[in-house]
């Protein structure tokens, strides 16, 4: 079958009627009933539930509808009346389902029964919960702890996450990778190193006070749309937004607030960015070096004219380390190198630096455009360098602001889901629960993939997520996966990762966050941490999708009880009966972060976990904030070569990670098909291509592995030279496992070296 032809349109502003239509389409497809609006109204509100979509904060003063297009889609996705029942699995073998599209799998609706994989019939068959737990426990007990992986995808609550991490450690390993290892691990490692705190330093109030925001590779229009409100407010009070992004993302250009009647009726959009710099993928280190170079020039001039300094010399002198080396690096780097590596003109970078120099308070915002590179660490620390030059860390209205992805991904790390034992208070756990916690490093996501390929990983427990779709080196990992002894997936809907199984395999359906979680002491609350480090309670109220579902907490406890020897200090049944007891344990483990945890659950806007860097307490090696000299000017980790392109893997506003809601990338004007390759017209000519040509992308790496994804339609698109774009997760087989950030091992999904192979001309 020839690939479906994409339809190219002129995209409207972010928000507006387009977003309302987007919600309506998903509502129709999910057969949402009238009760759903009631559920939506409870989203992100005090006493309601925390959105299952992104990690943007839930402000103290909620809007009438404190949800966005994508949050609504995520809720409708979870609350669908469609059900994926045992009879469905009786009709389809697992091999057959493996040929289905991701979209069609999830479209079957919510999973309803615990299922065991039966290799004889190649089908999933229903089983009891107790039977499942007993079998999982027996398999686990027979395995060496370090061969077992406990993956988490970033949604499970703080309570469940704490217990999950404890389960792994009581079992004997630190193999606790999570989706963060493919996402913001770069942030956790880099900010910890240079600021001594692994999370962003801003709070909501800072957005209302800043004079400028610098956006590096974060796309709020698609990925955190509620963030557009404070951005719009900031613009309207005169703050300036400067964006660095290879793609002109609509949400950073124009926004119509869908909750503002006049804006909706008049179609009057707010212009967002005052400057938009289409940096080359991987060109941010050079771009920021250029900005810093101009700041030094401005500062030299100010000193010459005896005007106020441009650099915050006081801050630099009292609070930072490594300034001289950094200054030398910037002064020694030539504009020619900066222009070549960033793809931006000197004048453009000077303009960006002028806005920065004029802003008394500036925030640096970033996302996957910085973290998912071979030199992601240098990307992040360069942004910090820029902020440090003018003392923009630890001050009101200023700071560094990574925007996290999954709704509780930051929180999972906070309460112990980490493969890095040094980040976890192991001595405290030892004392609380009377055991000797494992001290050796656990596996990151990349190391898990390697472990599956080389046979050292023998069991995989997935607390949510779609691991096999989200990872790099997808084909080799998928091929090796069945040689594992045990695979267990805890999920709400069927996905690809459930269709490739170990010798023993279970698919365990869980409650979603919108659903009432009834336990012995009554309906339970859970908690999550947002990207601004605020902790919120979340209460589901809907009737569960099936009476056979269990909460994630109960499933983790079920596995734990069946696997671990009895421990009088860990009463799993009591904990499941009342999650408040687990919160007490969390508070006992992390007394500084979770003081009076149960008492502060309903603090408007959540309660703040705190951040030492925000208080200018630097828990770094030098005891100061660190300036860092990057290892190279470009972040791609590979050399230029003729007709070698940098592939940017993209998300659309009609997907949440591997969940594809539909084929409409409305904000980029690409409709009907996701099987596309975006490229600019000059590069198209250089590569001998025409619009509509069907092409394959082939990874341009000299490691002897052939990686290819074909059937992509060539679409002319405004991208920088040398770059092509295609959708995640479809092109994940192209990403080599070894292509990751050198410091954090976050896969370098935003610059994959590829060649283009023309397969055929467009169908007439
Ligand atoms: N609707 C929706 N919302 C989501 C998600 C989703 O899939 N769909 N996923 C959630 C998750 S888990 C996450 S982590 C976040 C992700 O949210 P973001 O951090 O926004 O991630 P991406 O959209 O992958 O990439 C961000 C931007 O980086 C740009 N970019 C690519 N390469 C470069 C570069 O080299 N330099 C610069 N400066 N920019 C670059 C891209 O053009 C894109 O606009 O969103 C969360 N929210
Ligand atoms: N090429 C490329 N690859 C990427 C990225 C990229 O930008 N480019 N981004 C990376 C990033 S940032 C991330 S975070 C990862 C995402 O990787 P994952 O977090 O592993 O993947 P998701 O697609 O978010 O997982 C979706 C599945 O989660 C399950 N689920 C949904 N809700 C719940 C729930 O409440 N409980 C449980 N137990 N299960 C639930 C459903 O079964 C659903 O199918 O992908 C990474 N991969
Ligand atoms: Mo993410």
Question: Could you outline the blueprint of secondary structure elements for this entry?
Answer:
Elements: E1 7-8, E2 14-15, H1 16-29, H2 35-41, H3 69-79, E3 83-84, H4 86-91, H5 94-97, H6 102-106, E4 110-111, E5 115-118, E6 123-126, H7 129-141, E7 148-152, H8 158-171, H9 185-195, H10 204-209, E8 212-216, H11 220-223, H12 228-236, E9 240-244, E10 254-256, H13 261-266, E11 270-271, E12 273-277, H14 284-304, H15 313-319, E13 320-321, H16 323-332, H17 335-342, H18 346-358, E14 362-366, H19 368-371, H20 376-389, E15 399-402, H21 409-414, H22 426-433, H23 445-454, E16 459-463, H24 467-470, H25 474-480, E17 486-491, E18 504-509, E19 518-519, E20 522-523, E21 526-529, E22 534-538, H26 552-563, H27 572-577, H28 579-589, E23 607-608, E24 625-626, E25 645-650, E26 655-656, E27 659-660, E28 670-671, E29 676-679, H29 681-686, E30 694-699, E31 708-716, E32 723-727, E33 752-760
Parallel strand pairs: 2-10, 3-4, 7-16, 8-9, 8-14, 9-12, 13-24, 14-15, 16-17, 17-18, 25-32, 29-31
Antiparallel strand pairs: 1-28, 5-6, 5-18, 10-11, 19-20, 21-22, 22-23, 25-33, 26-27, 30-31, 30-33
Helix pairs in contact: 1-3, 7-26, 8-26, 8-28, 9-20, 14-17, 14-18, 14-20, 23-25
The structure holds ligand MGD (2 copies) and molybdenum atom.
Residues 106, 153-155, 179, 182-183, 368, 372, 405-406, 463-467, 470, 490-493, 495, 510, 512-513, 552, 649, 657-659, 728-729, 732, 735, 749 line the site of one ligand MGD.
